[in-house]
Amino acid sequence: MNARLSDYDYLLPRELIAQRPLERRDASRMMVLHRAEQHIEHRHFCELKRFLEPGDLLVLNDTRVLTARRFSDNGAVEFLFLERLGSTRWKCMVTPGRKMRVGATATIDSVGLRVEEITATGERIVSFDEDVDAYAGGSMPLPPYVRRPSDDKDAARYQTVFAREPGAVAAPTAGLHFTSEILSELPHTFVTLHVGPGTFLPVRSENIAEHRMHAERFSISAEAADKINDAQRIVAVGTTAMRVLETVARKSLLCSRQLESQSGESDLFIYPPFTFRVVDALLTNFHLPRSTLLMLVSAFAGRDFILRAYEEAVRERYRFYSYGDCMLIL
Q: What CATH number corresponds to the domain at position 108?
């Protein structure tokens, strides 16, 4: 068992962090990891179909990213609005935090707001002077490693073509590679997990077992559950879809992969060792060093195999993170 944070580190040249998407969604490279043979192939995402078998089912996350990033009128404070708590009250993250202690004020679109409370995990509860929609006029909340402001192109490209359930502040990035045409050719279903701010937060404990995930809202419909239960092999598209499936399996009274329709919150932290009950294969992007997502894929494919694959991806000049290339783990 690799329980130390330092066990999940690797070196990545900054120039390999993709700052913009490719012109075509399906043009990304795809590293294929064969777990049984410990073998690596270099392919392209448009070849995904050739690795699928009869009876396979893709499970995708249909959350829709909110235009949650706003700035104060003077540009001094950045807000990431997470949740509406009432007609004038919102939960948000702020940068820099020192400017927005309890009682601090700011204006957005000439409407005043005041910090009422700071939560145990650092979010601010703010109250506006009047009823506002904080997402109106906002921009896409690109992750911090994209070192540029979001623009009109991001409004389309930092959103999957199948996004339909508003609620995320980060995209389920494995789904960004799909076009409507490719998806129409593959057996699939949707679940929902609204990706929250925890996806940006670092693990701070050297003993990873001490880390606690932020809870994120999820749902799985009866139709999706039936399709999943009837499938021969489940291919999770992204770590968020995987977390929904494995969460629902653990909420079931049965120790089987038979799932039931439900909704709720998931704070499931997947790290080695972990017994997967539902997911047989995973399509995912490349993840940050020392991140919970790198721990998740290490639990699925084995830490040593994953870190060897990442070293090879660096040598082969793959594009990393949200707008980067992908990995298919079989």
A: 2.40.10.240
b/e per residue 26-54 (b: at least 16 CB within 10 A): bebbbbbbeeeeeebeeeebbebeebbee
Q: What are phi and psi of 71, to 5 degrees?
A: -125, 145
Q: Can you tell me the distance from the alpha carbon of 60 to that of 37, in angstroms, rounded to the nearest whole number?
A: 27
Both 36 and 170 in a single domain?
yes
Of 82, 105, 128, at which residue does a domain stop? 128
Domain of 223? Answer: 5-65+143-329
Question: Tens digit of pLDDT per residue, the chain (330 long)?
Answer: 678 999 999 999 999 999 999 999 999 999 999 999 999 999 999 999 999 999 999 999 999 999 999 999 999 999 999 999 999 999 999 999 999 999 999 999 999 999 999 998 889 999 999 999 999 989 999 999 999 999 999 999 999 999 999 999 999 999 999 999 999 999 999 999 999 877 767 888 899 989 889 889 999 999 999 999 999 999 999 999 999 999 999 887 555 678 999 999 999 999 999 999 999 999 999 999 999 999 999 999 999 999 999 999 999 999 999 999 999 999
Q: What is the CATH number of the domain that holds 41?
A: 3.40.1780.10
Residues 280 and 244 in one domain: yes
Nearest to 8 by CA among 203, 284, 174: 203
Q: Which of 128, 155, 176 is the last residue of a domain?
A: 128
